[in-house]
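Researcher: Here's a chain I'd like modeled. Treat it as a single chain, no partners, no ligands.
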Amino acid sequence: MTDDLDDLLAEQIAYYEARAEEYDATAYPEDDPEVRALREMLAQAAPLGQALELACGTGVWTGQLGRWAERVVAVDASAAMLALNHERLGASNVEYVQADLFSWSPPAHYDFVFFCAWLSHVPPARFDAFWSLVARCLAPDGRVFCVDERPAVAALERFVDDAPAPAVERVLTTGERHRAVKVFYEPDELCARLATIGWEMDGGPVGPRLFQAQGGPAFL
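Model: Modeled as a single isolated chain. Structure tokens:
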């Protein structure tokens, strides 16, 4: 099963590498009301100091973080995504790191950790380990801000049978087909689950499709 899960996660990385050039055309537009609301929430959260973005993609949120943070470390497994992000921003306060988040170890501690549309790609079997990684990333009094899709979006997905984790099939404009992990949460469900492993998170819906959750480990 572990080998099967590793294969699925490798396929997920390959999907985003292949999708990089068309990602922005198929993602939520920046003028979407829920995206606008999230930008305001992020500004209110004031990601000052040293910020870390996990699964940064093409930079939709990297630029927002860079407006506030002294320095942003943007991590992604896809070289193509990182290249587009850098081309898009060209910001002197952003450092790029290509790494698989399931094997990466943070080289420093950060005041603010952000990830959008990533948690749903974490298999249930890796959930606790991922949040342990996030805790290791945080400086004392550091904060986490995460964004993801709510279960209502599942109606738009084509789920795959017999995968080693909940997974969907994604088809690129080229016709290429890839599998990707997809786990949906409601914010109250997520915060309750995180409380059982030592986190104090507060979250809520942004709209019918997206939610946000913010907080930190109870033990820091």
